[in-house]
Design a protein that fits this description.
heterodimer; A: 708 residues; alpha+beta; Aldehyde Oxidoreductase, domain 3; Aldehyde Oxidoreductase, domain 4; 3 domains; 7-stranded mixed beta sheet; 28% helix; globular; B: 157 residues; Ubiquitin-like (UB roll); DNA polymerase, domain 1; 2 domains; 5-stranded mixed beta sheet; 5 strands
């Protein structure tokens, strides 16, 4: 193993292990007001009146009329209000906030507020949604011709449900007015500068009048990408009015119901096959965006770019829409649109193979993209595509091919087995030219006279290990012991904007900037002096420019690759399934710390298995999310997948630090395809499954169908 | 109303509030033992796990009335022990800590398990930690850490 990959004790291990870390809910409450949101109880309505009880001294109510600046939270667009405008667009939409010293009194005030509504007809069904937030389309080759010349055209629809990030620490933000009139906002977040931009605008003040600090953050997985901007604005408005610190930490039910989750999807695939090979795909992707646009544009872009999976498809047409419904806005979740389309394309390939009477893995292998091939958007796979080797690695670990053949045979008795395999990639970094045109990352190294070096960047440690891996890179280049280099949680008053903690970009993009900064510092190093060096993002030379209007060019500089196999045993009496093994090979380039990267792979793969199998969340006929507790929304425990094996396959990326590529999101992306294929095989009888999660109830329903 | 007397991390304390208050809230707000985390407040996630007379409980589901005369141990007390030091090394060695939010509860669950079963199989470890949710790790590293702590700490449990 290379030196940089050797594991070290994580720099945040001690405070987290011992319970000394201070999360936003852990600051003492003296003098701090508790903020709680007044939420809409209807999915769509005009708000006619909000009648407040008499507020005791020291208690405050804020709503849109208290926003000093603009009542819109800047995310990608600006349509998400801080507090509801004249209408509410989903159940749970914040209308106002009550803040005060005693939480019991705050709760009483909330229960006594009378909101009168004029109820309007909500749109809840994605199939009936008619407000199109985003509409994208691209094509290559000659789809019409390929369809006309096909031996057979397959058409199938696939759906996926919500997935909640379910970080163990619920959302929480705190705003503190400072003596100089500035506002200090801190809490659990991934993107300090996103919060900075949003709060600044909502308070109508200059950049230096607001600063944002990321507290120790108890997990994010995308859930703390955009949402802390909204909650941060709400507490800032309340703190401004009260002229006192205001903290709002969500309860679990509030968090599960009213914070963004993975977009539910509806994908229709029309696939032409000639001479046993896929010649064309015509793909329609619909994502349920919920009530406001938040991050739907970028989630949808990523989703449609990988809609053809890891396969070389010469004739391709992809149409994607993010649609409005009167439900909780969907948002970012590890994978960011890709898990939905990868699930669809993997199941589609599997179903076609079965219809053709060929082995599904062989069928998939025959279509694999290779180095030098064009991507869906007529960019290029510039680097080796290691899928064939990775398939062999997983086959060896899982005994896949033998089991896949064996479980194909008719099974008798109560318990039936199945195994499935899924192949996928994850484009590393922002989609298209986002890094170059929008993010423009900057980072700094500050060397103190005593020779210690502080990393100045805005990426947040959220469990993925940045407080350790960033210093490892810098210490390596400067030949310093690791304890001489440190990275604290970002405060926007102190650090440059190196971009958000998203898109599996931090280590690959910012890590490389830090490596270059360290080389610069090394060349200028003067003992005993205080020195600062700065480094700016530069796009790799080999990139084919990406045009978003045409969806053409390199959507990503490189790709992380994944192969996963999942083996299940279903109980045909109860429908429950036992996961006998989950095996993954992951290529994220050089691991900057072996334990940290394996931890990412295991955690992400298990989240993907949860998404595929037990994590069911839906809303009722009124638009209410009912799976709002850990007894209704189940996430995997220690006992669900005891046999979880993750391996690393290293294909170095020359423009990432020491060959590292994006890692965090990859392991989740393809799990649903492998799991549902496995259940499908165990069910036998020609079952054709096309939705995830596929739960025990779904299995029982399928068995019942067979009985008829 | 009489105060509720109990032992917190080895110190005798008396709580003046209501017998129906939650142990979780009292630990965090009155005694400032904030290693005890609130992840759901309904006994599902285990982030608020503490030891009550040596038994692992979700402190969100314990009313203060039930705490009278008992001994409560949180991470603030446990982290000074030799057993903690062994678990600490094992968790550090394999980087089993990611976001950290579940960890204090998870480590106390490991302590409760090892007291009862000093030489646990992986399956027994998974059973012992099954009431503590972690969303980051996929659990493998935590299970390995507890297993290696059991071996390294031979005789301590």
């Amino acid at each position: 193993m290379e030196k940089i990959s050797q594991s070290v004790v994580k720099k945040d291990h001690e405070p987290k292990m011992s319970g000394r870390s201070v999360y936003v809910g852990d600051y003492p409450g003296d003098g701090v007001l508790t903020g709680k949101l007044l939420r809409s109880t209807l999915a769509r309505a005009r708000v006619l009146d909000v009648e407040l009880p008499v507020l005791p001294e020291g208690y405050f109510y804020v709503d849109k009329s208290d926003v000093p600046g603009d009542n819109n939270v800047n995310i990608v667009l600006d349509d998400t209000p801080v507090f509801a405008r004249d209408t509410v667009e989903y159940i749970g939409e914040p209308i106002g906030m009550v803040a005060g010293p005693d939480v019991a009194v705050v709760n009483r005030i909330l229960s006594e507020i009378k909101v009168s509504y004029e109820e309007l007809e909500p749109v809840l069904d994605l199939r009936k949604a008619d407000t199109v937030f985003f509409n994208y389309e691209y094509e290559k080759g000659d789809l019409k011709k390929a369809l006309a010349e096909a031996d057979k055209v397959y058409e199938e629809e696939f759906t996926t449900g919500y997935q909640d990030q379910t970080y163990l620490e619920p959302q929480g933000m705190m705003a503190e007015p400072e003596k100089n009139g500035h506002m200090y906002v801190h809490g659990s977040m991934q993107c300090a500068y996103y919060v900075h931009g949003a709060v600044m605008r909502v308070l109508g003040c200059r950049p230096d009048e607001v600063h944002i600090f990321q507290d120790v953050t108890g997990g994010g997985f995308g859930g703390k990408e955009d949402f802390p901007s909204i909650l941060g604005c709400q507490v800032a408005v309340a703190a401004k009015k009260a002229n006192a610190p205001v903290r709002c930490v969500f309860g679990r039910r509030e968090d599960l119901e009213f914070t963004p989750k993975r977009h539910p999807s509806l994908c229709t695939y029309k696939v032409a096959v000639k001479d046993g090979k896929v010649t064309a795909m015509d793909i329609d992707v619909k994502f349920n965006g919920g009530a406001y646009t938040t991050l739907s544009a970028v989630v949808l872009q990523r989703g449609i770019i990988c809609a053809n999976g890891v396969y070389r498809i010469e004739n391709l047409h992809v149409h994607g829409q993010a649609l409005k419904t009167n439900t909780t806005p969907s948002g970012a979740y590890r994978g960011f649109g890709a898990p939905q389309t990868f699930f669809a394309v993997e199941m589609m390939m599997d179903h076609i193979a079965r219809d053709l009477g060929v082995d599904s893995l062989k069928f998939k292998e025959a279509h694999l993209a290779r180095q030098g091939d064009a991507t869906s958007t007529s960019g290029k796979y510039h680097f080796p595509v290691p899928l064939p080797e990775m398939i062999e690695e997983v086959d060896r670990a899982a005994d896949f091919r033998r089991k896949h053949l064996e479980y194909q045979k008719p099974q008798t008795g109560r318990y039936h087995k199945g195994i499935g395999m899924s192949l996928w990639f994850h484009g590393a970094g922002f989609t298209g030219s986002g890094e170059r045109d929008f993010i423009k990352a900057v980072c700094k190294l500050h060397k103190f006279p005593d020779g210690t070096v502080e990393i100045l960047a805005s990426n947040g440690e959220i469990g993925q290990g940045l407080r350790t891996t960033f210093p490892k890179i810098v210490a390596h280049e400067l030949n310093l012991p690791l304890d001489k280099v440190y990275y604290n949680h970002p405060d926007t008053a102190r650090v440059p904007d190196s971009g958000p903690t998203v898109a599996s970009r931090s280590l690959m993009i910012v890590g490389e900037l830090l490596r270059r900064a360290a080389i610069k510092l090394r060349s200028q190093w003067k003992d005993g002096e205080d020195q600062v060096v700065e480094e700016h993002f530069k796009e790799p030379d080999f990139m084919i420019p990406f045009y978003l209007d045409k969806f053409q060019g390199d959507a990503y500089p490189t790709y992380a690759w994944g192969v996963g196999a999942i083996e299940v045993e279903i109980d045909t009496c109860t429908g429950t399934s036992k996961i006998l093994g989950a095996y993954g090979s992951f290529d994220v380039g050089t691991p900057i710390d072996y334990n940290i990267v394996i931890g990412q792979m295991e955690g992400g793969f298990l989240q993907g298995i949860g998404y595929a199998s037990i994590e069911q969340m839906n809303y009722d006929g009124r638009g209410r999310i009912r799976n709002n507790s850990f007894s209704d929304y189940l996430i995997p425990t220690t006992k669900d997948v005891p046999n979880l094996k993750c391996m690393l396959h290293v294909e170095k990326y020359p423009d990432g630090p020491y060959g590292a590529k994006g890692a965090g999101e990859l392991p989740l992306v393809g799990a649903p395809g492998a799991y549902v294929e496995a259940v499908e095989q165990a069910l036998g009888h020609g079952a054709k499954l096309n939705h995830a999660p596929f739960t025990a109830e779904d299995t029982l329903n399928e068995i019942r169908k067979e009985g008829k | 109303m009489d105060a509720i007397r109990f032992v917190l991390n080895g110190q005798e304390v008396s709580y003046e509030g209501s017998a129906s208050d939650r142990l979780l809230d009292v630990l965090r707000n009155t005694y400032r033992t904030t290693s005890v985390k609130c992840g759901c407040k309904e006994g599902e996630c285990g982030a608020c796990s503490v030891l009550m007379d040596g038994v692992l409980v979700n402190s969100c589901c314990v009313a203060m009335g039930a705490v009278e005369h008992s001994s409560i141990v949180t991470m603030e007390g446990f982290r000074d022990t030799e057993r903690y030091a062994v678990l600490d090394r094992a968790f550090a060695e394999i980087s089993a800590v990611q976001c950290g939010f579940c960890i204090p509860g998870m480590v106390l669950a490991a302590e409760a398990l090892l007291v009862k079963t000093p030489h646990p199989s992986d399956e027994e470890i998974r059973e012992g930690l099954s009431g503590n949710l972690c969303r980051c790790t996929g659990y493998n590293a935590i299970v390995h850490a507890v297993s290696s702590a059991a071996k390294e700490g031979e005789g301590l449990w």
